[in-house]
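Researcher: We're teaching a course module on how sequence relates to structure. For the next exercise, students receive a sequence and then see the predicted structure as C-alpha cells, so they can try to spot secondary structure elements on their own. Here is the exercise chain.
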Amino acid sequence: MTVNLSCDRDPGDTACSGRGAGASTRTGTRLPLAGLVEFSTCDWPGRLVATAFCQGCPWSCPYCHNPALRDPRAPATVPWSDLTDLVRRRRGLLDGVVLSGGEPTVHPQFPTAARELKDLGTGVGLHTGGALPGRLEAALGALDWVGLDIKAPRRLYRQLTGSDTAADRAFESLRLLRGSGADHEVRTTLDLRLDEESLFELAEELLAEGVTAFTLQALRSQDGRTVLRRPSDLSAALLDRWRGSFRALVLRE
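Model: And here is the predicted structure for the students to work with:
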C-alpha cells in the first residue's frame, strides 16, 4: 500500500517530506497511522506542522488521493509513538500536528488521541469531511484548527461519497464548528462533477449556514502529479459574484 504524501502539490516539492506505509510493521497504540510527514507547510495555513495520515474512511470520493486508506480494518503501519516522539523532539520547532487521512474521526479513540497530542504542548489540527459530527464535537476542546471538506451541494453528496447520510453529517459538522468558535477552514475540491450551477448552489447553501470564508481547491489526479481543474478555470462572473458574497474567497491552485 502506498500513501500519497504530496500535500496536494508536486511530489518534488521539498516543503513536504515524510514516510508512509511500509515504514513500520508495528501497530499504533492510539489512532492507526498509515503515514507521517515530519515537516509540512501546506496542511495548516500559515503553520509548519507534522501531518499524520490515519487509516480508515467511510466514504468513497472519486478524487481521493489516498484510496488505500479507506479500509478501517487495515493494520497501522506507523506506530502512534512515532508521532508523539516526534512532537516531543520538535517542541518549539513545529507549530503543531495535523491529523489527516483517511478520516480520523472514524475511530472511537480520536477525541482521546487529540487530547493526548494537545497535552504534549503542541497545536492540533484536523482534516475531516465531517463524517462523524458527534466525535468531532467531543474533540473540539483539543482542536486548534479544522479544515472541513464540504464536497458538494446537498443533492450531489451521495453521488460523490456513496453515502446516503453524508450530506446531513457534513452540514451538521459545519454547524458544530461554527457554533464552537474554533478556527476552521471550509473548502471544496473542484471535482469535475461540479459544474458552475452546482458550485453556485453549494455557495448559496454555505452562505445560508453563515459561512463567510470559502476556499476552492484545485482537482488533481489521484497520484497528485497533474492538475485537472483549477479555481482560475471558473468563469470570472462566478468568481466575482462569490467575492461579493464571502468576506474571504481563497483560490488554492
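Model: If you want an answer key for the exercise: The helical segments are 80-89, 110-119, 133-139, 157-161, 166-180, 196-208, 236-245. DSSP finds seven helices and eleven strands in the chain.
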